[in-house]
Amino acid sequence: DTAVSQTPKYLVTQMGNDKSIKCEQNLGHDTMYWYKQDSKKFLKIMFSYNNKELIINETVPNRFSPKSPDKAHLNLHINSLELGDSAVYFCASSQGRRSLNEQFFGPGTRLTVL
Amino acid sequence: DQQVKQNSPSLSVQEGRISILNCDYTNSMFDYFLWYKKYPAEGPTFLISISSIKDKNEDGRFTVFLNKSAKHLSLHIVPSQPGDSAVYFCAASAYWSGGTSYGKLTFGQGTILTVHP
Fold first, then answer.
1. Which of A40, A41, A99 lies at the smallest CB-CB distance from B105?
2. Please, what are the averages of pLDDT over each run of 10 residues along chain B (117 residues)?
3. How far is residue B93's CA from residue B31's CA, in Å, rounded to a whole number?
């Protein structure tokens, strides 16, 4: 039974489109994250929600909007997709919002913008 | 500005020998460090961590060493096994000193470890 799942696994789309990536965790955790792994392979935090409250919001274009309908879900909506948005996006969750709390990652969504 | 760097993109080691993976950081506020391991088509999984009040933490075959003055940490795997072949990410956070950023992890770009039988 997958602990942190993401859909879709692969997403190929045209520039200018709007797309969403969904994330669900069945671990009962209260904190969820979105990371972006760029072309240089660095994993960078984008957003974090704790009990549906936004607690980390890095310098990310406002075309990216996270939505947390409940503690088990954190979706990422991207408007007006650009070539530079091509990356692997990872969702993660933890029990607690501190870096001491182990983060469990999903398998990633590879987004390709043509 | 990348505050955590893993300058070796890859490392190849013979089974049974020691693997040493290195990580450097620039932010002196970082006080908690972690290593994550990632297999292809999977997300990273937590491996081991160390607080800045220690200089060594050991868990079975895995040992992390922290040199605060050099802003350097390393992960030692002894003995290395073929199943250890994966990408290893170093991560850091300003847990005690970072105020409300205590949940934020800054990752390096990873090192691909290949252990040959």
1. A99
2. 91 98 95 94 94 95 97 98 97 73 83 97
3. 6
